Design the sequence.
């Protein structure tokens, strides 16, 4: 893949999942896909960002970020194998998508955490780690739009995939896209550590600090309550 549109997951996808799936719940029956089955990039860039995320994020959020990577890769390889992007680009997006919720950042800005997180990611990747501009911008846009859920318009491939994977881990949404044995294996490697209550508290903190926050668009009570009532992941919390 030498085309930056393909390499970095810029291709446009419909934002509405029912359009993407043509009204179906899945494109094919999900199959078990373990952590051992899945490529985890070990490039210098990926390794640097992995260590950065491990240091900056609470363990619960770091584990969530890694689960989002593995669930997303299962969705990609099984449901949408035609989607083009490097695994490195998707991993960077997963590791940094919640960086704006870290304690040192969530109250350091008036901006919604996704937008500030996108700026932090863009600066880290392009200015400090010398990632290609097209890759850094793809990661930043996906982070800024990972809660931009709707029924109209388009979104990048990387942006849509991280939406699907975060909704799956946070709320049990689109449960037919990932096999139950995949959940068991991924949570064995990256335990949830009561993620549902942890993330619901983060949502409420963001909304209390910033009543204008973009997170409120998902429902000031509906979103955190939906996270708390994640029945799919309840056995693993």
Sequence:
């Amino acid at each position: 893949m030498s085309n930056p549109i393909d390499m970095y997951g810029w291709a446009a996808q419909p934002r509405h999942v029912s359009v993407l799936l043509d009204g179906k719940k899945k494109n094919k029956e999900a199959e078990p896909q373990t952590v051992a089955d899945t490529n985890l990039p070990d490039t210098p860039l990926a390794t640097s960002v992995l260590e950065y995320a491990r240091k900056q994020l609470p363990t619960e959020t770091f584990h969530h970020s890694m689960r989002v990577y593995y669930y997303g890769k299962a969705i990609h390889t099984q449901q949408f194998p035609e989607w083009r992007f490097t695994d490195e680009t998707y991993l960077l997006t997963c590791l940094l998508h919640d960086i704006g919720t870290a304690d040192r950042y969530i109250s350091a800005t008036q901006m919604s955490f996704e937008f500030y997180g996108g700026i932090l990611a863009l600066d880290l990747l392009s200015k400090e780690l010398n990632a290609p501009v097209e890759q850094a911008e793809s990661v930043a846009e996906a982070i800024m739009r990972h809660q931009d859920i709707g029924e109209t318009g388009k979104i990048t491939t990387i942006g849509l995939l991280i939406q699907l994977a975060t909704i799956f881990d946070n709320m049990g949404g689109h449960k037919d896209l990932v096999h139950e044995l995949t959940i068991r294996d991924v949570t064995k490697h990256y335990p949830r550590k009561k993620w549902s209550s942890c993330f619901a508290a983060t949502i409420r903190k963001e909304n209390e600090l910033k009543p204008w926050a973009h997170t409120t668009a998902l429902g000031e009570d509906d979103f955190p309550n939906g996270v708390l009532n994640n029945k799919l992941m309840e056995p693993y919390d």
Q: What stands out?
A: The first strand starts at residue 12 and ends at 14.
